[in-house]
Amino acid sequence: MIFFFEQLFIGLSLGGIYAILALSLVVIYKSTGHVNLAQGEMAVFSTFLAWTLVHAGVPVWAAIPMTMVASFFGAIALERLVVRPFNGANDLVVVAVFVGLFLGIHSIVGAIWKYDVKPFPSAFPNGAVDLMGGLTIRIHTLGSLLTTFLVLAATWFFFKYTRTGLALRAVADNHQSSRLSGVNVSLMLALGWGLAAAIGAVAGVMIAPVTFLDPSIGLAPLIFALAGALLGGITSPFGAAFGGLIVGVLEAMISAYVPYGVEFRELLALGLILSVLLVKPAGLFGVVVTRRV
């Protein structure tokens, strides 16, 4: 039983990271109608920025907000220069742009920081906590869970109680009506990209101490985050976060209890994606959109 609860906490910690990354996918999807396939690579780039700051002598907790700010403005520039020119293009063109972003950012990260594996310090103290009856949980695991809930709570507050958040929600629902109501749609789209990048940076610095840091660490979390977002509902921030937690727990349990389960983790994500798209495309909490033709 103790082993089960240990795996449950590990799964919730991983799921929290997937939830944060899934939330960043939802932010861009709700504002543009497209899934940003380069979101994981953007998070990796942000994590390497944090690694550079830490190795320059900046404390980890100071490097994280600095990285979030840099990621925010960097994503705005990326949206303006790379994505904006293809606004209104057909879906195939947009997918090609996102694939190009994925490959381009991955190559830039490799060219700057090389492809060797680098250790990344945890933002939390080393060691573990004995919770009950011999149940030992790493402090980083508990810290990742706390960070997840803080990010989700802050995002919920932003979208529900701030003028900018309400404007972003309006743009996500209807660009034309928002523009007629006086909302600067162009600015809101850029802010959506910046917010998604800042949220993704948090996911990157949370997972890097667990997996170590190299240019390839962004792909697997992106797949799991996409599975979580689709499971919970890619139009629902709460649903995407909930789906990310479920995916993390399932991954941990399969890795622990299924023979050779570690090798089948990506297959789990693929199976979830296909199952949701076939059975309930809107996800558990998503909104079904109908169009009159």
Automatic annotation (TrEMBL):
TM segment ranges: 7-29, 49-78, 90-115, 135-159, 187-210, 216-234, 241-262, 268-289
Membrane protein topology class: Multi-pass membrane protein
Keyword Nuclease: no
UniProt-recorded name of the protein: Branched-chain amino acid ABC transporter permease
GO biological process entries: amino acid transport
Family annotation (Pfam families): BPD_transp_2
InterPro entries documented for this protein: ABC_transp_permease, BCAA_transport_permease
Species per Swiss-Prot/TrEMBL record: Paracoccus aestuarii
Keywords on record: Amino-acid transport, Cell membrane, Membrane, Transmembrane, Transmembrane helix, Transport
Leader peptide range in chain numbering: none
Domain of life: Bacteria
Single GO cellular component term: plasma membrane
Family (UniProt): Belongs to the binding-protein-dependent transport system permease family. LivHM subfamily.
Compartment(s) of residence: Cell membrane
Keyword Membrane: yes
GO molecular function, a single term: transmembrane transporter activity
